[in-house]
Amino acid sequence: MRYFAFILLVLSQQAFAAELKPATRKAFDHYSQVAEARMQGEISAAAKENKAFLWVEGVEVSHRNEMLAKLKSGEVVTEALQEKENGKAIEVPNALVHHWIGTVFIPGASLKSTLALLQDYNNHKNLYKPQVADSRLISRKGNDFKAFLRFYQKKVIAVTMNTEHAAHYETVSATRAFSISHTTHVAEVENADTKDEREKPEGHDNGFLWALNSYWRMEEKDGGVYVQCEAISLTRDIPAGLGWMIKPFITEVPKESLFTTLNQTRVGLMKVAP
């Protein structure tokens, strides 16, 4: 039995090994650029043409009313997205793109308190634990932030990632704001929290996370604040033979992470709401 377990471990490590190829990264960046152009168009239209600022306001009326009812009852609503260009899906070879959007409503909260909470990167390790095992602000220059976040996820297997993010915040009006965040460093941690801990080379690891872009929108109205997060992440594809081990992590974690992040944002803001 021990010999079998050793062989399984060796095969697992070989199957997990993945490489982020330049063509994959280029295609992901293009996917993100198309998505960001669409988002900027939505934000501009909301300001100039009085169109919807939030995702939930732009969906079909029957679905919108259902979503708003859930939000007012304290639930988090999420949905999978797929960006298209000229009506066609954008191909990202040898990898998977995970594109999710979600919203939560926090009664009694203000736009000011929401921005303060999201920008308090030194406290993210407390607010978003255990998903965020450590965090710190690296630097701030006006509305531009650089932050370190150490992610921890367990789904059949446990994975620790050291990440650095560049985030920009903009206030659109007295009641609206948005932010854009891109990872600038993503490294899988081997032997986490031991004396042998080390980072694997970026893009030459197990491929559990290669990039993460987060896009937040906040609007104060209806006696509280709506907080929306759109997340686009890049991971390896699912290897043949060991899908049972890696598929739950690759396919389920992006959605669950978004849900947890929004829910814990709500909990944190409820604590400071009057």
Give the helix/strand layout.
Blueprint: H1 2-16, E1 18-19, H2 22-48, H3 61-72, E2 77-80, E3 84-85, E4 88-89, E5 96-107, H4 111-119, H5 124-127, E6 132-141, E7 144-155, E8 157-171, E9 176-190, E10 198-199, E11 204-205, E12 211-221, E13 224-235, H6 243-272
Antiparallel strand pairs: 1-11, 2-5, 3-4, 5-13, 6-7, 7-8, 8-9, 9-10, 9-12, 12-13
Helix pairs in contact: 4-6
Describe this structure as you would to a colleague.
The chain has 274 residues and is an alpha+beta fold. It has one domain: Alpha-D-Glucose-1,6-Bisphosphate, Chain A, domain 4. It has six helices and 13 strands. It has helices at residues 2-16, 22-48, 61-72, 111-119, 124-127, 243-272, and strands at residues 18-19, 77-80, 84-85, 88-89, 96-107, 132-141, 144-155, 157-171, 176-190, 198-199, 204-205, 211-221, 224-235. The strands form three sheets. Strands 2, 5, 6, 7, 8, 9, 10, 12 and 13 form a nine-stranded antiparallel β-sheet that branches. Helix 4 packs across helix 6. The longest helix is centred in the last third of the chain and has 30 residues, at 243-272. The N and C termini lie far apart (59 Å). Mean pLDDT is 90; it is low at 1-15.
